[in-house]
Amino acid sequence: MTDIPDFLTIDTATRHVSLDARNPEFFGNPNAVYAALHKHCPTFYWEEQKQWFFTGYDHVNALLRDRRFGRQILHVASREELGLAEPQEHVKHFDAAERHSLLEIEPPEHTRLRTLINRAFVSRHVEIMKPEIEALANKLIDGFEKDGKTELLASFADIIPVTMIARMIGIPEEMGPKLLEWSHAYVGMYMFKRTTEDEHSADRAAKEFADYVRSIIRDRRENPRDDLMSHMIHTEHKGQFLTDDELVSTTIVLLNAGHEATVHQIGNSVRVILESGVAPDTLFSDDKTTERTVEETLRICAPVHIFQRWVLEPVEIDGVAFKRGDKVSLILAAANLDPQKFTDPLTFKPDRAEGANLSFGAGIHFCIGAPLARLELNIALPLLFARLPGMKIARKPEVKDVYHFHGLDRLDLVW
Predict the structure, then answer these.
(1) Residues 190/260, Cβ–Cβ less than 8 Å
(2) Full domain range(s) for residue 80
(3) Fewer CB atoms near the end CB (10 Å): N or C, the chain?
(4) pLDDT tens digits for 288-325?
């Protein structure tokens, strides 16, 4: 099996796979591994993670919507019954911040929370932000255009998403750098092979983050404004208002999800377009080509690779029997590369018309910020390529060691 990378071991008989997620050859180019898995073992048991993983488009798409799988398990079974360890003291602030997270809860709590904030994120409300995003992107490009070079993440990609989601929620823009700092530490909890220091760092960030959000909540209770925080505080659903703990969890997840993935995706998209050799003026000639280009970059270099699910009842999927309390992982980025769904899947083809990518998930946990992320990408990418003709990659991009996220540490450009 010469098409399998040296650092990847696949036993097709048992469907067991051995792979070090911290190997730079893997996180630097996960698509090559996904291609090998699709060919030899699309459903597999990852020995290092001690869990079953699904990469096939149809399986991932179906499991994201399957109510026999959920983001939480303790609403249907006790820790004792499942043999789960008690919560750890050193991550208590992180656990508290996650307790009411939209990403971590199931109906009916999920339905109530999502209903209260969904209106702010529907496309027609997000579209109103288009002039603001354009103005900010142009202002940032004004700052480095004459230099003939830039490191795109620090000068552009980091700034747009965090600024826009902060404005939307009602948090001062000058908090942007601090929000990024908290967010980067916070999402360290989701990395494979996280260290104890990562956990302590995430917990400190969660405490500071939550304390800050509570101060904003106190202010908006007294002085409501035309922002999402005021809307969440003062809007009821079936006679119920969000509690402070729910407001904290919801605000943190919106801030993190509202910019972390989009930062990665701006860098990933620019890189994949420049490395493809396709002429940028053909990619962004009108709204339709721009939209298709953005969707193709989301397909081929998704910013978030894995969503996990608890098994809520005994079930068999693809010949694998699961019991209640098991955990499975769905590799969204691999599903986007399934050759059964997409022809020549490792090739950037902006004129594809083969169906939707799964980069924002599916089902009740479909990314609530998808309309905002798509709008930011549809505005920022064409502007960059229009205003910086001749843009090239100055040196090999550095990929972050943050699997199962996928993004760059640096993207140095010249023009």
Answers:
(1) no
(2) 9-414
(3) N
(4) 999 999 999 999 999 999 999 999 999 999 999 999 99
